[in-house]
Write a structure and sequence with these properties.
This protein is of the alpha+beta class and 307 residues long. It is built from eleven helices and seven strands. Strands 1, 2, 3, 4, 5, 6 and 7 form a seven-stranded antiparallel sheet that branches. Strand 5 and strand 6 form a beta hairpin.
Length: 307
C-alpha cells in the first residue's frame, strides 16, 4: 500500500505532500526517494524532491514544511501506482507548483474527461509513458502485457491524500471515485491526515511494518543556497549523486550477468577435478543449513531447564 499525502503552498514548502507506502521486497526507501524525484523532474516539475518521514507526527509534518476542479484518474495499467499517485498530487497543485508546460497541457486536455478516460489518457501520454518506462527492464519472468488494474494490485500500492477546496481527499486509482475524509484546510492538514493514515494501517496485522511515508518538498538545495549552508549543500549534492547511481542500477537486468558468474565458478570447480564440484556443493549446503539452524535458535530464545 502506498499513500501520497499533499498539502501546502510555495510559501510553506516543507508542508507539501507525503507518500505513504506499504512495501514488499523491493528497493530501499532511499532508492525510492531518488526514483520519485527523478520522475517528477523528468515530467517537467521544478524545484521539488522527496524526503522520508519516519513517523506519524503532526508537529513533524508541519516542520517539514472545490471537488469539481479535482483531478482524478482511474488506474488502468499495472505497476504504475507510484507514478499515478505523484500525478494525483501534482495535477491538483498546479496553481502553487511549477509542474511544467506539458503536464499543464495534459491537465487542460483531460479536464472534461471522466476518470476512466483520464486513466487511459495517462497510459497513452508519450511523456508520462516514457518517464515511467525509463526504469523498466525486460525480464524473462515478467508478463509485460497491459491489463486493467484490480483490487489485487492493492497489495503494495501508492495512494494520494491531499486537501482540495477545503476537503481532505483520498485519491486511489483503484477506487471508482475520490474519497472524502471531511473538511480540511491547509493549516489543518497535518493534524487531520494522520488519523486517516492510522486507520488505513490498522487494517493490516499488528506485526505488519512494511509502510513508509515520503514527503514531497522543495528541493533542499535551494534553501541551502539561500542561507549559504555549504555543508548542507554538499550533503544534498552527494545525495543526488547516490540517487543517480541507484537509478542507473535499477534500469539494468542482472540475470544474465549472474548466470555468467555462476557458470564461470562452476567451470572453475569442475576443472579442479571430478570430486571438487560435488564437495563445493556439499560445503555450501552445510553452511546454509548451519545458518538456518542459527536463525531458528535465535528465534526460539535461550532454553530453560524445568525442575
Amino acid at each position: 500500500m502506498g499513500c501520497p499525502i499533499a498539502g501546502g503552498g510555495v510559501q510553506d514548502w516543507l508542508q507539501y505532500h507525503v507518500l505513504c507506502s506499504r512495501q514488499g521486497y523491493r528497493a530501499s526507501n532511499f532508492a525510492e526517494l531518488g526514483v520519485f524525484t527523478y520522475l517528477i523532474n523528468e515530467l517537467g516539475v521544478k524545484n521539488v524532491e522527496f524526503e522520508e518521514l519516519l513517523g506519524l507526527d503532526a508537529s513533524f509534518l508541519k516542520q517539514q514544511s472545490a471537488a469539481e476542479n479535482l483531478f482524478f484518474a482511474a488506474q488502468t495499467i499495472q505497476n504504475a501506482c507510484g507514478t499515478q499517485a505523484l500525478l494525483s498530487v501534482l495535477l491538483n497543485k498546479d496553481e502553487v507548483l511549477d509542474i511544467g508546460s506539458q503536464l499543464k497541457e495534459f491537465k487542460e486536455f483531460t479536464n472534461a474527461f471522466p476518470s476512466d478516460l483520464r486513466g487511459e489518457a495517462l497510459s497513452n501520454s508519450e511523456l508520462i509513458r516514457d518517464v515511467h518506462n525509463s526504469f523498466a527492464r525486460s525480464s524473462p519472468f515478467v508478463d509485460e502485457a497491459q491489463r486493467l488494474a484490480t483490487e489485487d494490485d492493492d497489495v503494495y500500492h501508492f495512494i494520494a491524500y491531499t486537501p482540495i477546496g477545503g476537503t481532505l481527499f483520498e485519491l486511489d486509482g483503484l477506487q471508482p471515485a475520490p474519497i472524502s475524509h471531511g473538511s480540511c484546510s491547509f493549516e489543518e492538514f497535518s493534524d487531520k491526515v494522520i488519523p486517516v493514515l492510522q486507520r488505513r494501517i490498522e487494517r493490516y496485522p499488528a506485526a505488519e511494518i512494511r509502510f513508509n511515508l515520503l514527503a514531497m518538498v522543495q528541493d533542499l538545495r535551494i534553501r541551502a543556497r539561500e542561507i549559504g549552508d555549504q555543508d548542507r549543500l554538499y550533503q544534498e549534492e552527494q545525495k543526488r549523486n547516490a540517487w543517480r547511481w541507484e537509478n542507473a542500477l535499477r534500469r539494468h537486468n542482472f540475470i544474465d550477468f549472474a548466470g555468467q558468474i555462476m557458470r564461470s565458478v562452476a567451470d572453475s570447480k569442475l576443472r579442479e577435478g571430478d570430486r571438487a564440484y560435488e564437495g563445493w556443493v556439499e560445503e555450501a549446503k552445510a553452511k546454509s543449513q548451519a545458518r538456518l539452524e542459527d536463525k531458528l535458535n535465535s528465534r526460539a530464545g535461550p532454553s530453560e531447564d524445568v525442575a
